[in-house]
Amino acid sequence: MRLSTTSYLVLGMVALRGPSTPYDLKRATSRSVGYFWNFPHTQLYSEPERLAASGMLAVDLEDSGRRRKTYSLTPEGRAALQEWLAAPTPEHFEMRDVAELKLFFNEAGAPDDDVPKLAQEQIRQHEERIAVYEDMVSRHGDEDWARPRMITLELGLEMEHAALRFWTALATGTIDDLRRERDERDPR
Amino acid sequence: MRLSTTSYLVLGMVALRGPSTPYDLKRATSRSVGYFWNFPHTQLYSEPERLAASGMLAVDLEDSGRRRKTYSLTPEGRAALQEWLAAPTPEHFEMRDVAELKLFFNEAGAPDDDVPKLAQEQIRQHEERIAVYEDMVSRHGDEDWARPRMITLELGLEMEHAALRFWTALATGTIDDLRRERDERDPR
DNA sequence: AAACGCACCGTACGTTTCGTATGGTGCGAG
DNA sequence: CTCGCACCATACGAAACGTACGGTGCGTTT
């Protein structure tokens, strides 16, 4: 049985939260890890089933109305998760950025310049996302249980600010400054 | 007929390159736009077929051995592409970062600390990618045809440096400095 | 206390994407 | 001339995706 990244996502979430229903997972991921690995909620119903079938999760079926399924980690599940966590990842992150695509193909566009509008919208997007992240920090930043999970927010914030700087520079025609400042900061 | 992002990718590539075979597209994307929107090469064989069926591309079938198909843009195809380019994107970029996942779930791992190795490997990844991007800049940076397409490289570089700063700070225990420096640079 | 409405929760199903694996093609070396 | 390897193309099964629908049960209204 081959485990995908989604599998480990589920195993990890159950490990952090304790026994969970798919709906619990859905809510928990959409507010945290979902920001850097998105997937449809249907996966959170089918994937635990697969994992239970291969002994990674134990399932407890509610017999009343909603017939909720509550999944918990088995020793095998925990072992698989820890093995995965212990191995560093040779993969580079993967991006999917429609705005960047549009910028790349810009020269094939109609004569009038579409870039300012594109940049403006991206600036909006990134500022909004930064606000969301900062809000999380200020609401949970000093709670002990949250601390270790907050660290990834810093990466998110670095990336958001990087993108924001780029689109802002593009909108104001100061791309050259961008490169110069980067060279000063992280000399090659 | 519904066009996906992949459709526009193909339309855009044919627009920039002129008439192209799927293999041409594959090679061209893998060295450029593939860095921020990856997809398997099989898509580059099936997608143009779809687009040709709906009149966005014209196909010219080689009758000799390899039976190459060369696709070129029709007026409808160009119109569709330009319409797409003219509309700013409401979407935020999407990330898929296995390393970030591992970091997030770290507390569920075995007692010994897996983070240093993880960080080290990511630093390697990002330095390597930066080298690739810088090489592109230095090889094509002063060619006129390449200039407009080089601009997205700057976004790539900003992102890479952001990630590199994060993992480096994580490895050296200077995450707090990271935040402080960011605040100085981009005051909230 | 019955009826209603809405937020909560779960799953079925058709479509698209993905990756792998396989097989043909033709140039250049020997 | 033929052999080998890089080039090129597609088939096919498996996974991921998104949407759309349908049930559940709590709180509110009458």
From TrEMBL, chains A, B:
<feature type="domain" description="Transcription regulator PadR N-terminal">
    <location>
        <begin position="11"/>
        <end position="83"/>
    </location>
</feature>
<dbReference type="InterPro" id="IPR018309">
    <property type="entry name" value="Tscrpt_reg_PadR_C"/>
</dbReference>
<dbReference type="InterPro" id="IPR036390">
    <property type="entry name" value="WH_DNA-bd_sf"/>
</dbReference>
<dbReference type="Pfam" id="PF10400">
    <property type="entry name" value="Vir_act_alpha_C"/>
</dbReference>
<feature type="domain" description="Transcription regulator PadR C-terminal">
    <location>
        <begin position="95"/>
        <end position="166"/>
    </location>
</feature>
<dbReference type="InterPro" id="IPR036388">
    <property type="entry name" value="WH-like_DNA-bd_sf"/>
</dbReference>
<protein>
    <submittedName>
        <fullName>PadR family transcriptional regulator</fullName>
    </submittedName>
</protein>
<dbReference type="InterPro" id="IPR005149">
    <property type="entry name" value="Tscrpt_reg_PadR_N"/>
</dbReference>
<dbReference type="Pfam" id="PF03551">
    <property type="entry name" value="PadR"/>
</dbReference>
